[in-house]
Amino acid sequence: MPALETRLQSELTAARKARDKPATLLQSTTLSEVRNRAIELRRDLTDEDVLEVIRRGIKKRRESIEMYEKAARPDLVDKEKAEVALLERYLPEQMSNDEIRAVVRGAIAGGAGNVGAVMGRVMPQLKGKADGSAINAIVREELAGK
Asked: Half-sphere exposure of 122 toward its Cβ, with a 13 Å CA cutoff?
């Protein structure tokens, strides 16, 4: 069992003991998604696989936040934001915008001249270390300022 999955399981147990219903629901849902991913892949998961499940969960919740904001549902926005904050604790330390910008500038200096080419070069280096939308925004800024 990957260390991250073990951590999720132990924090689920702690949330149950503390009778923290929102955290219990989120942890159990995430663990269920992790187990479903293992069944889907037909192999034991690695920590990277578990992180991918967590990233997907965060992305889904951010999309829900946008929809709830458009629908003027602040109660649901707050709930989703709290879940995103809980899930983000499991992600590795994220890179700063300056660090991302340095990698992007290196890719542009290496000959990548459009958004697709730059993203293709930097995403493998930055995967899991930075949000894709933040990377894309910095790539567009750098290309516009070039």
From this structure: 33
User: Do residues 128 and 92 make contact, with C-beta atoms less than 8 angstroms apart?
Assistant: yes
**pTM (2 decimals)?**
0.76
What contacts 133, CB < 8 A, 6 or more positions away? none
Q: Block means of pLDDT (10 residues each) for the chain, length 146 residues? A: 89 95 95 95 91 93 95 95 93 85 85 81 83 85 78
Collect all residues with Cβ–Cβ distance below 8 Å to 114 and sequence separation of at least 6: 143
Rounded to whole angstroms, the Cα distance separating 138 from 144 reads 10
Which domains can be identified in the chain, with CATH numbers?
3-88 (1.10.1510.10), 97-145 (1.10.10)
